[in-house]
Amino acid sequence: MLATGGTIAGQAGDASKTAGYKAGVVGVDKLLEAVPALSSVARIHAEQFASIDSKDMSAALWTALSRRIDTLLAQDDIDGVVVTHGTDTLEETAYLLHLTVKRAKPVVLTAAMRPSTALSADGPLNLLNAVSVAASQDAAGKGVLVAFNNQIHSARDVAKTSTYAVDAFRAPETGALGFVQDGRVEFQRTVVRPHTVASEFSVTDEWPMVEIVTSHADASRVTVDALVAAGARGIVVAGTGNGSMHATLTHALADAVKKGVAVVRSSRVGSGHVMRNGAASDDALGTISAGTLNPYKARVLLMLALASGAQDLQRIFDTY
Known about the structure:
Blueprint: E1 2-5, H1 28-33, E2 47-52, H2 59-73, E3 81-84, H3 90-100, E4 107-110, H4 123-134, E5 144-148, E6 151-154, E7 159-160, E8 169-170, E9 178-181, E10 184-187, E11 210-214, H5 222-230, E12 234-239, H6 247-258, E13 262-267, H7 282-285, E14 288-289, H8 295-308, H9 313-319
Parallel strand pairs: 1-2, 1-3, 3-4, 4-5, 11-12, 12-13, 13-14
Antiparallel strand pairs: 5-6, 6-9, 7-8, 9-10
């Protein structure tokens, strides 16, 4: 178990409050003590990998975490890894690991929407379920998973969809892979797109600058021009609807493409897919469709693709 902090390790002075707490202050040993049933599921080796609020997650930590997981899973006496994480960037970390961990053994992320000191804290049950999934032979070969609120999700599809609810994590387009309850782990579908051992990507010590801009009413080109001037190698657009972009923003992004910046169209909507528009947009502008990836996951994939030197970026987004 690799603990990175987050709300699951959060602490507040008032048990009746679920806001205004300090994230990442409860150590992993205390998290384990709160769930005695874990000892009946697995023999657990715990590491305090980081102690952060996940809004402050960094690419450097991603690199270190992916490499540590690979090192652990290479050991014969380790059957799986559970990562405790904050909810804010969990979907990004999970997808990054989904594409860079090079082992088929289970890797399961979990988190909590309520701090450990809150009434009806959801962290202990999520932790027990995550360990149950990681200990299940059925979880092997399915890539990185997220266990949350009795559901099992693929790292590629899952997203945080609520600011407060304990069922905050869902896969809007595809649904959950399965469920875990009272120790029973059941998968009802599998993962189709390549991941982990079938992925062409690895983490790096030198990450390219990739940023996200949003299209909205009366959008300007100020942000795009500033990013290009700052040396950004990629820009993901959280577009309206089917990845559409304000005319002013479109002109700025077309200029960015001419300067060698990779531009990916995603959507700010929250579900659905962004179709490649062909001659009507993407072919003319030189932009790439993100498919069903939200802007934050599209950024992760674009960073990995640029770091690897990949040339056919549309193929990358169509594949992963």
